[in-house]
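Honest question from a wet-lab person: if I give you the sequences of every part of a complex, can you actually get the arrangement of the whole thing, not just the pieces? Trying it with mine:
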Amino acid sequence: MRASELKIMADIEVKNLSRTYEYYRKQQGLSGSLKSFFYREKLFAEAVKSISFSIESGELIGFLGPNGAGKTTTLKMLSGILHPTGGQVKVLGHIPSEREKKYQKQFALVMGQKNQLIQDLPAIETFIVNKEIYEISDKEFKENFNELADLFGIKDILDIQVRKLSLGQRMKCELVAALLHKPKVLFLDEPTIGLDVVAQKNIRDFIKKYNREKKTTIILTSHYMEDIKELCERVIIINLGKIIYDGKLDDLIKKYATHKLLKVVFNGNGVCREEVEKFGEIDEFNPYICTIKTKRNEAKNTAIALLSSNLPVDDIIIDEIDVDDVIRQIFNS
Amino acid sequence: MKKFLTIVKAFWQRALTYRFTVLAYRIGEIGETLALILMWSAIYGGQKVIGGLTLQEMITYILVGNFFNAIIRNFLSSVVSHDIKDGRLSMFLIRPMSYFNYILSREIGRISLSTLMSVLSSMLIIIFFINTFIWNFDVAYFLIIVAMVILAFVVELFLSYLIGLISFWTDEVDGIYATIDRIKKFFSGGYFPINLLPLMFVQVSFALPFAYSFFVPAQLYLKKLDLSVGLKGLLIQIVWILILYGIIKIVWGRGLKRYEGVGT
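Yes, you can. This is the full assembly:
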């Protein structure tokens, strides 16, 4: 038997996947409207341009990119909402756009901006409806539900109308509704959007725990770097419909973060800008706290130089550049 | 079947949370029926018979027709339209149950309460006019009327769904819905018995499904139409249900392609 045959098939296999949208341009004003009523020039926008990647079972992948990069379009193709205009997708051995029930019972999609809970009823009613739609047995439902309700701590809000819940509580319920049928693959599109810092962290912790315990394959898109930093070992960065990075987050930082940040705290009367400037590029400055950007390999020496200078140094912290900055750097280049 | 019942139950509960709206609608309905009765009483003046109906029969026609109408109608088009416009349809496309089956179960649950209330308020007016109201306890007629009302309910459901699907192409369907609603009411005999119109209109309206949701069952109730007309009507309704189902399939397929094309 050859080695390639022994290899376990990946959960998600994407090859040269493309998606083009049709759209029209309308000239300004009424005359433009009239013109476009009779004649429309068809234009095409390539939202996703021939991307390829594969994801193994149990991985938790961060899918990054600015607005309109093609993240949601890709997730929609993976879940079968959209047909690809080119290339192939296979998830768990199924072609998503065929919308087979067998496949639909094995994955879930949660969108931060679209809800599936019935707004005017307590969340429990949606859970019961989903139990029937996904044909979950009574026994299995009971087990899953109890486990999830405990994990997410939603037992005391089950009898409250969904519309009366806070955004964070609602998102927890959305996740429970999506996980009741024990999906093997989970797509999370901006699950923390609009949430406050505490609620974000909560959701993040649940996702982490769930992935660890259930070995569910998860693709997560988020605008919040915190989400990605905390959850994902591997990231795929997409911009203008193309993948520009696919690999470990750590490697990405090492590759692009050519600088380190020295956060220096001064005591006494503080310092003036000129005194610090000779140690490196100043990122942030006030007389008591100052952030200096230095090359990675010079960070240590700069710190020593600062300590041995006659400046009133109280503390020095050497820090990595923020992932946000790294990503911004990539998108700008 | 259990899927269906669970969804019906959930949306029946939802309706219960909107008790005020459910009650508020009834006031308008009762008002409309009373206005029609008042108007016809004035028109009859000294006349004994109009369109083959005595005033007593006409009042019964209005009462019983509105009673059927209360059972038959639904508010599905705006639900479907919103699901499509807001992109919520996507969340249904990924679930192992077709949108058609889901939304129909859901609508039945959703309107069950208001239908029940309508039926109750219609019965209330009937009781109010108990001295004028003509009773018909003929079993054969009763069975045909029940079958006709059930089929009319299905026709109406399919039609509303179809109107909702227009949202794949245009941003709003309220205008189209309002227009079709009026045409429907006209051909159904909801404004006045259609036999007051030239024969051609009557023939056209008997070929359309609308007359079977008001005029025909009401006239059957008054025994102004033969049982054979009723049976033929059931057949026409079934044909319409099949036609509408076919159109829904085609429109859904095309609409979905477009939905994907613009990528809502």
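Two things worth pointing out. Strands of chain B lie at 49-50, 53-54. Residues 193 and 246 of chain B are 31 Å apart (CA to CA).
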